[in-house]
From TrEMBL:
Residues 201-299 form the M23ase beta-sheet core domain. Pfam families: Peptidase_M23 (PF01551). SUPFAM superfamilies: Duplicated hybrid motif, Lysozyme-like. The keyword Signal applies. This is M23 family metallopeptidase.
Amino acid sequence: MLTLLTTVFFFSQLPTVTASTPSEAELVDERMRHYLKSSSELVPWYHLAAIDQYERNIQQVRPDIEKSTGPISLQLPVEYWAGVFNPDLQDTNPLSISFFGGNGADGNDDGFANRDEPADILHTIANHLALYGPKDEDYKAALWHYYKREATVNQIMTIAKLYKHFETVELDAHTFPIPKRYHYSYRGTFGSSRGWGGRRIHEGTDLFAGYGVPVVATSYGVIEVMGWNNYGGWRIGIRDNHNTYHYYAHLAYFDKGIQTGDIVKPGTLLGYVGSTGYGKEGTSGKFPPHLHYGVYKYNGRTEWSFDPYPALRNWERQK
């Protein structure tokens, strides 16, 4: 009895072993392994990664979508997976899934098409993409057939373009839009009223600085819009890999080396502080020179503005 009690006491004192939560770096590495394994000449890894990142983005801002707990965020609808007429929507048999017109596939050769298995998920969407071909236009067609929303297709194409160019999915770095050696001032003005052009609210933060102070990109992204806007004057719109649209307005002029469609990274020179806007093309001087910086989030249905002030404060401390 003494021996038994001693043994029980000994094991009760051993430290409890629990599964540790993987770090973000470990998650990124795991995702890349899945992307590369499921890729092919017809379906490069960055096409798969872009769809997965888009799904991760909308899950973070949509309460009606369940958040994935695994390394891959892409979740394919049960009807798409098993087949609309399949009596068993939880079917994992590749043969019966195919018989009922489903798309679920076995990506890890275990004999099952599991809707929760990353290899099977990516293999299934890769099969869909491969039906259309390897070119960018083919990829757009495949995305349109699946999502049936132009804004979604454009967002995923942007992410894929960034991943292909930088050869990585680690594009989360940011920087302050005005280099540190220049003087500027700003405060939180998001939501305050604006009168020119009709009753509206201020959808951004104004950073006041002298004429000609450089303005740089805050993130990785693709220049989506560049030119004149009656409200924002000379302005640039950049879309990043997190479904965020960055809006830089009231510029005096653009940097000569950039154009629509260009890929930028944090610190890329975009243009210079001015006071353009509130009128037809060329209007300037109706307000003090400043950069209007706005951010907009796309959730797969709509796009809305949100306050950039907290992020600016954070990037300012980092610089």
